[in-house]
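User: I'm preparing a small set of examples for a lab meeting where we compare how different chains pack in three dimensions. I only have the primary sequence for this one, and I'd like the structure in token form so I can line it up with the others. Please keep the answer compact; I'll paste it straight into my notes.
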Amino acid sequence: MPQELTPQQLEEDSHWWFASRTRALLTVLDRCVPGRTLDVLDVGCGAGNMIHHLSRYGKVVGIDNNPIPLKIAHERGYDARLASAEDMPFEDESFALVTALDVIEHCEEDSRILRECRRVCTPGGLVAVTVPAFQWLWSNNDVINDHKRRYSASELGAKLSEAGLAPKRMTYNNFFIFPLAAPLIIARRRTEQEPELATPSTNEEAYQVEMEPASPPVNAMLTGVGWLEAAVLRFASFPFGTSIICIAQKESRAVTL
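Assistant: Understood. Below is the structure token output for the 257-residue chain.
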């Protein structure tokens, strides 16, 4: 009998933000990933929601430094291990695809994590990274999510290059909602009435902040916008948005650690 999903697990599958990010990322990856029998590593896997989606590319291993979501990942039957992204317990060149999805913005030493991603990636392999965009969009939501920074595409590209990873596809995401979301965040921040997309959880067993729920009509509308963006991403990249997706390739040159 299938395990009953918790509200947070259901949220990861149905909330417009998660659904849109997943759809956009898979659209980009489908055009970059060379095969479907790869060894894949999901860094910061949480409860394993993306392990399910990434399994379309091959055998997936996940790591996370929080045992609470890992317990759920194990109950789902995923290969998820307790480990630090800054010191991964894998041999060099173990994975053809490495993902770090909304991970490095939480870490003081983001470059160190990118170097670790490169180390465990096979020559010519791919590293997929997603991050929040534009430091000037910093808000209370970043504080709640324990972010250290936001990025521009050029900043992320420079960090990847310094780590020995050559960006092959870089695009912003949430492009269509950006003209409304950005001014709203700035205006309400100035009046101390900032809109919150996430709230701290009072549940000691929670493994992430809880996304602010949208009404069913709004959630459906924004999910539809996500479908539209994913369709466009099949043949074009966006020049701005609230987040960034980058697919980089491991270069052969040595990198000083």
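A couple of notes for your slides: The two ends are 48 Å apart (CA to CA). The longest helix spans residues 216-232.

User: Perfect, thanks.
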